[in-house]
Design brief:
CATH architecture of the largest domain: 2-Layer Sandwich
Number of helices: 5
Number of strands: 6
Structural class: alpha+beta
CATH class of the largest domain: Alpha Beta
Largest sheet: 4 strands, antiparallel
Strand content: 15-25%
Radius of gyration: 21 Å
CATH topology of the largest domain: Alpha-Beta Plaits
Order of helices and strands: HHHEHEEHEEE
Helix content: 25-40%
Number of domains: 2
Shape: extended
Strand order of the largest sheet: 2-3-1-4
């Protein structure tokens, strides 16, 4: 596997890994790893480093929803212009172009379900290219970005007996 891919696989799972630790893990020089990381940042392969937070542990009652959006594509720009416009809303966490029945998958957050409803009815659905939406509220997160939420420390290995 290419050294860049090895580095990306490691920092995707733990962005706090230092160049020194990665170098040790991959049996490479620290300077080589640091230079490759810097180059990937400059080339916009690495776009940023995020912290994943389990807000439920803090008693945060915020709401997250996935909105499936059917869009009328525009001539010569397809879905890009409307997707970029949706991205500008502060409530929006992510936007992806999808195959299937709907064109865009939009993840939004709000303090209450009414906030999400207001966003859909007053901001999203009023855009000219939007044909229809389906809002799905996320009830519980079990796993995100390779990380298990609410995983207890019990040993889950199967017992092997003769």
């Amino acid at each position: 596997m290419d050294l860049k891919l090895k580095i990306l696989n490691l920092i995707e799972r733990d962005a706090k890994l230092s160049a020194r630790t990665i170098a040790t893990m991959l049996d490479e020089e620290e300077a080589t790893i640091a230079a490759l990381i810097k180059k990937m940042e400059d080339e916009k392969i690495i776009l940023g480093y995020n912290t994943m937070i389990n807000w439920d542990k803090l008693g945060d009652d915020g709401v997250t929803a996935m909105i499936e959006v059917k869009v009328m594509p525009e001539r010569e720009v397809g879905f890009n212009r409307i997707a970029e416009r949706i991205c500008r809303f502060p409530e929006v966490k992510s936007v992806q172009l999808m195959s299937g029945t709907y064109d865009l998958s939009v993840i939004v957050t709000g303090k209450t379900m009414k906030d999400i409803s207001w966003f859909v009815s007053h901001k999203l659905s009023t855009l000219d290219q939007i044909q229809s939406t389906v809002t799905l509220f996320i009830l519980k997160t079990y796993k995100q970005e390779h990380v298990m939420f609410d995983e207890d420390d019990d040993d889950k290995r199967l017992v092997v007996s003769p």
